[in-house]
Design brief:
It is a single chain. By secondary structure, the protein is an all-alpha fold. About 75% of the residues lie in helices and about 0% in strands. The chain has 12 helices and no strands. It has helices spanning about 15-35, 40-55, 60-75, 80-90, 95-115, 115-130, 140-150, 155-170, 175-190, 195-215, 215-230, 235-255. The longest helix is centred in the C-terminal third of the chain and has 21 residues, at about 235-255. The protein is globular. The chain starts with 16 loop residues before the first helix and ends with a helix.
Length: about 260
């Protein structure tokens, strides 16, 4: 499940040069992240954060802190990721509810990735307290996370229901990456229920979305789940071909990195 808070937009003419500089650092950080240059992205987001702090641009401080937390997690620096989030969560009422909800959600993601399901569920519930309706822009991501946690507990029916809710929200927002995640989660739940045929259509749609977005890791996951579904149906040749495709994508991704 991915979450990257959108970078700050270009400042209005009335805003000062420091805000313009912070926005520029932020845009360059986003570009570096898309290119896979995580260390450069980290440095640029840190520069944006320092600049926003210097003029007390609180939205910018929250945005860059959450972006930095995600980058630290991607680099395997979970302790630093937690520190970035704690800076937002410990800020009292100075940050908006939107960003508090996002920081809590990122906390839940960190714990879910570390397989601490109880802590992940606790932080997800705290995020949900501030993200209860369609006005919350993180709702689709939060529902996907809750579906992932249900899968980890072996609650396939619960995961399927949550993923369906997430898909409706994400499609409504035209959030293609999160829509693909919802579809993949639905398929994983179906595979867990041994409803292998029902897993094929959502995986095919997820694969098409992930290809359009150029998300190699997700493409690999889609292909592996498709292989599992075909194997469950007794389609040994199809499953073998899909696993070969997934391995090929993984090899090429490593060469690019």
């Amino acid at each position: 499940i991915a979450l990257l808070v959108a970078c700050a937009g270009a400042p209005k003419e009335s805003q000062n040069a420091r805000l313009a500089q912070a926005a520029d650092y932020n845009r360059r950080g986003e570009a570096a992240l898309k290119q896979g240059d995580y260390r450069r992205a980290l440095a640029l987001y840190e520069a944006a954060l320092r600049t926003d702090l210097s003029v007390e641009n609180l939205d910018g401080v929250a945005i860059n802190s959450i972006n930095l937390a995600r980058l630290h997690q991607m680099l395997g620096e979970d302790a630093l990721a937690h520190q970035r989030l704690d800076a937002v969560l410990g800020g009292g009422d100075i940050f908006s509810r939107e960003f508090i909800a996002a920081a809590r959600l990122r906390k839940a993601m960190l714990y879910q990735a570390a397989n601490d399901l109880d802590a992940a569920a606790s932080w997800a519930a705290q995020s949900a307290d501030m993200c209860k309706d369609s006005a919350c822009i993180w709702q689709g991501t939060l529902l996907n996370l809750r579906a992932r946690l249900a899968l980890a507990r072996g609650d396939f029916a619960g995961a399927l229901a949550l993923a369906a809710q997430a898909l409706a929200v994400n499609r409504g927002r035209d959030a293609r990456e999160e829509s693909a995640n919802s579809l993949r989660l639905q398929a994983e739940a179906r595979i867990g229920q041994k409803q292998f045929s029902a897993a094929l259509a959502p995986l095919a749609e997820a694969l098409a979305l992930d290809k359009a977005l150029g998300l190699s890791q997700r493409i690999e996951q889609d292909l592996r789940h498709l292989a599992d579904a075909h194997a469950g149906l007794g389609h040994a040749d199809e499953a073998r071909a899909l696993r070969i495709r997934a391995a090929r994508v993984a090899r090429q991704e490593m060469q690019v990195d």
